[in-house]
Request: fold
Amino acid sequence: MSTAAKTERLMKLLIMLLVQRHFVPKERIRAILYGDASTDAFEKMFERDKEELRSLGVPVEVGSLDAYFDEPGYRIRPDAFALPEIDLAPDEAAIVGLATRVWEHQRLASATTEAVRKLTAAGVDVDLTALDIAQPRLAADDPAFDVFLEALTERSALEFDYWRSGTAEPARRHLQPWGVTRYAGRWYVLGFDTDRGAERVFRLSRVQGEARRTGRPGAYQIPDGLDISATTRRLAPAPVTQRAVLLVRGGAAAPLRRMADSVEVDVAGPDPATTWDRLVLTRGNVGLEDEVLGYGASVYVESPPALRDAVVARLEGTLA
Amino acid sequence: MTARSGGQIPSGAKDQVARLLTLVPYLHAHGGVRLIDAAQALGVSPEQVLKDLKVLLMCGMPGGYPDDLIDVDLDLLESEAGEVHREGVIRVSNADYLDRPMRLTPTEASAMIVALRALRAGAEPTTVEIVDRVLTKLESAAADGPSEIPLDAALDEPGRDADLAALGVRLREAAERQVQVELDYYVPTRDEQSHRVVDPRGVSRHNGFAYLDAWCHSAEAPRLFRLDRISAATVLDTPVATAPQSPRDLSDGIFGQGDDQTTLVTLRLAPQAQWVVEYYSVEAVRPGADHLEVDLLVADHRWLTKLLLRLAPNASVVAPADFTADFTGAAQDALALYRSAGA
Reply:
């Protein structure tokens, strides 16, 4: 089936359910939109079409037509479908424009762009250029981030291998995710741990391999009035700062020098091309890998071994 | 639209439906929109919008009578020979039931709200007040809809943005008083710390960063200094030596301001590096099966090499070849440090 034909069917289904005031009987939907299909094929196509509309955010409701026959019917309530009137002053619209540049994460950056398109379609004039304001950045590059975000949206339980500090082996864990939050530069997921029977937090960067959904969507509910950030802060271990020792070419990497606890000048380095200085930094490891890589052959990691190995592995990955 | 979300292979029909559900209300709200402008608003080509409209034409109320169908005047958008009129005005009628855009999805609402809270954390009091108004309006628009995703984020360095705002105020005052400023400035592409005296002209913004525009007495030319790279700024009593000027307007970008030559570079980005597309202004984006191909204008090859190293191993250069060589060379040099040390 061509894209155009499928779009046409989805649009007709949407319009049909949106303009009727009552639930539309399934048989009527079939007669009008799926006339040629066998019963089996109709069931399958209709099921998939409904799911596609729902995944776009279209609220397709199921209901019973009357008390005597329990033939199912469907509708889309216009007030549940449409964005309510929203009136933004020019300075407010400019702030909305800025929000599209905060996320350094593909999916969430696209989501803000899409939100702005909808607001523009509602008649708000979003100015994407103006306004004098410091612009923060939010990055989310843990590989597990997307799976946890999707599971949260669907309310799906997850199974994953988690590596806790101080243990030799990752352990299999089961969680109903309640929320994802950032604290001290790291992303955490908070949820109900079904093995322990209690609420727990997990650091996303310590999830090993793929997290898998273990149940149907909508399998649990998130407690009302839960304060994700406060609960995470209560349960998460205090942020760990680590000591890193870097060798830096003479005069290079001034931003790293500014953060250093100590600088020892003119030490033996990995090559004789320039002089080298030894910097000791105490900080969270968040972003340090990227930063060290950005300096190329001007910065060399002496320790910790984990940082050093990560830098080497990423360079090797690039040259592979 | 949703084409690039989630990293999965998108269904063309689903994306087209999403676009139509934004396009129809957009036309309703703006009236008399040209094909080219609608395409820009939706982030697709005019040809794609025309294709979308041709599908819309087939849709309508379930009666099956001609009156039930949505009407689109294609004559204004395409010649009989099939040539697309990009300047043609889109006329859609008989689609009143689609004149409001869809509600924000939970992901869209959460992504916006968290981004706004992040903006709030680094803002001055007058801006905080505006952000709060926006948050109230967005939260109430999302209130009766599907529930938000529980997502929250605190900034790493909330104090830093406030420090930069204060630096901006000092530099602006120096420009108004027409006195010189002594700067310690870090030049990232050369990885060099520099010291210079400048005649400040004012502070402008581009892409979320604040820049001091000034006449630089070391370069003997006008230069832009990004505020977060100024490690020390001393306002002197010496009056400026050049004629005062207003700061440059950077809304069209900071490339092409001087005599910088730019090169069009094509990058291949794995999903982990795809935020680059939203972060830097790019010329073109071509989605592949599991990656994006992106064209961007590069003024300094050292800038690009640094970016690619930071993204390693999730980004590579497709063309031109000398950029590939630069990057590969830099990665080899860095790796050689560890090899020679017997790591």
